[in-house]
Amino acid sequence: MLDGCTPWPEEYVDRYWAAGHWRGNTLDNLLRGWALQYGPRTALVHGGTRLTYAALNRRVDRMAAGFRLRGLRPGMRVVVQLPNVPERVVTVFALMRAGTVPVLCPLPHPAAGLAELVRITQAVGYVGPAAHEGLDLTAAAADIAARWPFLRRVFTLEAPGAESPYGGLTTDPSNCQYSPLGTVDAPPEPALAQSADQVAFLLLSGGPAAAPRLVPRTHNDYARQARAAAELVSLTEDDVYLAALPAGADTVPAFGCPGIVGTLSAGGTVVLAETAEPGTCLPLIARERVTVASVAPDAAGRWLDALPAAGADVSSLRLVQIGGDARPLPRASAERIGAALGCRLQQVFALPEGPLLLTRPGDPDETVLGTQGRPLSSDDEIRIVDAEGKDVPDGEPGELLARGPSTVRGYYRAPEQNARSFTPDGWFRTGRLARRAPDGNLVVTGRLRAVPHPF
């Protein structure tokens, strides 16, 4: 486990292994297996780019070797701030394969927040676009490197057809090395020996205005989450999943609920969209015959408003996941979505820390329309408590607490925040209000007003 992270107690480690939740395979090594099993099938689609599983794995192999050639070593942290393009998927897997820890940062993100991420993680590298929507992110990285001497490698994703301002590896007066991401390439090296209980990557929790809270997700816990969510919605190699990210934020469902990782585990095809706007997504659904998609409630509303004029054929859809982290989907909107898109609706509540609630495809309409479902398994424990930490009766509102094989036990290098957000016996205080319906499903009603916990 990475220094600064809170491990699971041994009794829970033994329980989760015995139950088969954790299986001891790293995410990058799972990709090797998927490439062997599904090699010629299409793994990623973005615009005119189509990558097979075999080609994706080869790119990851060569980029991992390129990162190692540029001095990245196991355990080092690297901030990744990329749009939702194939290079994002390749980079994250390549960094993991090189033994480093990607720090996934939304695009865009305030420069001050990015600097704080670098400071907390002591990141030695940064991967991002040279520019994004008029923002010079390379200049922002250079400014951070001047303040924090451990940041010494900047890898830039250049726009298609653009001439790199670097032309290869260069340095600036602060001795920071710059390199176009496309040049990070070397012959593959023998696989590193890595443990699945190591941290695979760090996720950012909280909005851009909040102090950064970094969530350490291990290979074991994240692989389990994506795999179980994929099994729950019966993903197969015939499915085509639309991964669309809203502007300014990463959505948890789009990466691992089942998301990109879960779809790849089943041999399906991932269609990457850089925005969740209907002008981008509806034509993609029609062109690629998308079967499963994840979208936030407000974006789903825009899809429905645009659908009549768009003239897009969305009949291939069999399931649309609606959800996020707090705001519930109004019942009227849920009813409208299912009818307009002609497919099954699945409500999802997901947090970077790991708690995941989902309705099931076979649930009654009343459950799907009015609740956020239930956890993946009985080992994903849920409590709803009052201000004193006591369990409330079913139907009564309270704070949602969670604990389980995919829910972390603490934030990265944040002891004071951990004392506020985690109980001594390992329950994560989500800060969300919820109530338990008579059938056992959960209804998440909003955010808890920020007050100190007395328990």
SSE inventory with pairings:
Elements: H1 10-18, H2 27-38, E1 42-46, E2 49-52, H3 53-69, E3 77-80, H4 86-97, E4 101-104, H5 111-121, E5 125-129, H6 137-147, E6 153-157, E7 170-171, E8 177-180, E9 199-205, E10 213-218, H7 219-232, E11 240-244, H8 253-256, H9 259-265, E12 269-273, H10 278-288, E13 292-295, H11 297-310, E14 319-324, H12 331-341, E15 344-350, E16 356-358, H13 365-370, E17 381-385, E18 398-403, H14 415-421, E19 428-436, E20 442-447
Parallel strand pairs: 1-12, 3-4, 3-5, 4-9, 5-6, 6-8, 11-12, 11-13, 13-14, 14-15
Antiparallel strand pairs: 1-2, 7-8, 9-10, 15-16, 17-18, 18-19, 19-20
Helix pairs in contact: 2-3, 2-4, 3-4, 7-9, 10-11, 11-12
Nutshell version of this structure?
The protein is of the alpha/beta class. The protein has helices at residues 10-18, 27-38, 53-69, 86-97, 111-121, 137-147, 219-232, 253-256, 259-265, 278-288, 297-310, 331-341, 365-370, 415-421; strands at residues 42-46, 49-52, 77-80, 101-104, 125-129, 153-157, 170-171, 177-180, 199-205, 213-218, 240-244, 269-273, 292-295, 319-324, 344-350, 356-358, 381-385, 398-403, 428-436, 442-447.
